[in-house]
Amino acid sequence: MSNVVTIGVDLGKSVSKIHCADRVGQSFALKKLRPAQIGGFLRTLSQCLSKS
């Protein structure tokens, strides 16, 4: 996922959704993760802008 420029985070009690977008704002990935998995997933991404 080296094309990720912006991520959106929808926090939930048991599952959170991570939306990834490229430079033109086109969404290309949706991940459903448990809270314990979010940090590990975000560490795999290159530096980008986060919106929550």
Provide a short characterization of the protein structure.
The chain has 52 residues and is an alpha+beta fold. The protein has one helix spanning 35-43; strands at residues 6-10, 16-21, 27-33, 49-51. A 4-stranded mixed beta sheet has the order 3-2-1-4.
Which keywords apply here?
globular, 52 residues, alpha+beta, 4-stranded mixed beta sheet
Report the order of strands and helices.
EEEHE
Shape label? globular
C-alpha end-to-end distance: 19 Å
Largest sheet: 4 strands, mixed
Strand order of the largest sheet: 3-2-1-4
Q: Given the structure, what is the number of helices? A: 1
Helical coverage, percent range: 10-25%
Model regions low in confidence, pLDDT < 50 over at least 5 residues: none
Supply the helix-strand structural class: alpha+beta
Write the layout of secondary structure elements.
Elements: E1 6-10, E2 16-21, E3 27-33, H1 35-43, E4 49-51
Parallel strand pairs: 1-4
Antiparallel strand pairs: 1-2, 2-3
Describe this structure in words.
The chain is α+β, with helices and mostly antiparallel strands and 52 residues long. It has one domain (6-51). Helices cover 17% and strands 40% of the residues. The protein has one helix at residues 35-43, and strands at residues 6-10, 16-21, 27-33, 49-51. The longest helix has 9 residues, at 35-43.
